[in-house]
Design brief:
The chain is of the alpha+beta class and 190 residues long. 43% of the residues lie in helices and 16% in strands. The protein has five helices and five strands, in the order H-E-E-E-E-H-H-E-H-H. It has a five-stranded mixed beta sheet. A hairpin with a 2-residue loop joins strand 3 and strand 4. The radius of gyration is 29 Å and the shape is flat. The protein starts with a helix and ends in a 31-residue tail after the last helix.
């Protein structure tokens, strides 16, 4: 009984292959092609031209920002909203630092979209600014030239190293015998 089931499955597979080759032969005849493709045609969608884009990450503590930079008209958006609307207002200038240091003309032909999650709002702000700075350096390294990339890198590193190099500091785990990582409970002798 099992043998007949296996035979019928193989027969069905062969019939499916024959049907597929018949379809491709029909397509070849319609297009007046001389050779038939060995595999059946799946989708005939035209491919879009690849845009010049780079994707980089900026991190601070547990916050991670993913920046996607591509050729455009100078838009910078964070989680879908313009960079000018970032809250809290007191830290807004921190996010603008890469743009202010390098100048608006460097960002005029770039669209940068940033997705950020994790951490608190201060860590997110620092992750965003790192992602923006890294994205413009990566874009210039890939699509412009090496000398402009080195110039941008030098300018950013001379202002603040954390714009390009992530901060390795992490929260130290709490230990027993105290209320935090280092502080111990008060000791009394009587």
């Amino acid at each position: 009984h099992r043998l007949t089931a296996v035979c019928t499955c193989r027969a069905r597979e062969q019939q499916a292959k024959q049907a597929a080759t018949r379809v491709t032969c029909d397509l070849v005849e319609r297009n007046n092609c001389s050779t038939a493709p060995t595999t059946p045609l799946r989708n005939n969608k035209p491919t879009m031209p690849a845009s010049q884009s780079v994707q980089v990450f900026g991190k601070k503590k547990t916050a991670t920002a993913c920046a996607f930079a591509k050729q455009g008209r100078g838009l910078i958006k964070v989680n879908g909203q313009p960079i000018e609307l970032i809250q809290p207002e007191s830290l807004r200038l921190k996010v603008f630092e890469p743009v202010l240091i390098l100048g608006q003309e460097k960002f005029s032909n770039l669209d940068i979209r940033v997705r950020v999650k994790g951490g608190g709002y201060t860590a997110q702000i620092y992750a965003i600014r790192a992602a923006i700075a890294k994205s413009i350096v990566a874009y210039h390294a890939k699509y412009v030239d090496e000398s402009s990339k080195n110039e941008l890198k030098k300018t950013l590193l001379s202002y603040d190293r954390n714009l390009l190099v992530s901060d390795p500091r992490r929260c130290e785990p709490k230990k027993y015998g105290g209320r935090s990582a280092r502080a111990r409970f008060q000791k009394s002798y009587r």
